[in-house]
TrEMBL record:
This is Bet v I/Major latex protein domain-containing protein. Residues 5-156 form the Bet v I/Major latex protein domain. It comes from Hibiscus sabdariffa. InterPro entries: Bet_v_I/MLP, MLP-like_ligand-binding, START-like_dom_sf. Signal peptide: none annotated. Pfam families: Bet_v_1.
């Protein structure tokens, strides 16, 4: 990505109770089940082309951001089950009206000194122009989805 005032990178960590493998599995292999955990945020995730959990797979997402229904299509750029990492590059949809590029990576690691995990979210982006906000509200959406998914994964049967 070119270095300019239009490019940026946002990162955050979210502590969860679920295992790294459980959380990673939902985003890499079962994202079409995410709406069960947070249907107020993720409304649908559909396979457009390829196989769940495979690099090159194209996925359509329907989600709610700032109170509005949105759509995005992404390509899975990286999946590393050993590192519990997955990277998505957005290629079409509402985000591309404001961003020239938008890449989201999540990596889940065991929490040091205890049970649970830490989800590390990274958003790398290039805005189309200075009038576009940095995507802090999208980073907050990732945090909120993480918490909802964790509650879903760790709820008693």
């Amino acid at each position: 990505m070119a270095s300019s005032a239009l490019t940026g990178k946002l990162e955050t960590d979210v502590e969860i109770k679920a295992s790294p493998e459980q959380f990673h599995d939902m985003f890499s292999n079962k994202p079409h089940h995410l709406h069960h955990a947070c249907n107020d945020k993720i409304q649908a995730c559909d396979l457009h082309e390829g196989e769940w959990g495979k690099v090159g797979t194209i996925v359509n997402w329907s989600y709610v951001h700032d109170g509005k229904a949105k759509q995005v299509k992404d390509v899975i750029e990286a999946v590393d089950p050993d590192k519990n990492l997955v990277t998505f590059r957005m290629v079409e949809g509402d985000l591309m009206e404001e961003y020239k590029s938008f890449v989201v990576t999540l990596q889940v690691s065991p929490k040091s000194g205890g049970s649970g995990s830490v989800v590390h979210w990274t958003i790398e982006y290039e805005r189309l122009h200075q009038g576009i906000d940095h995507p802090e509200t999208l980073l907050q959406l990732a945090i909120d989805v993480s918490k909802d998914l964790d509650a879903h994964l760790t709820k008693p049967n």
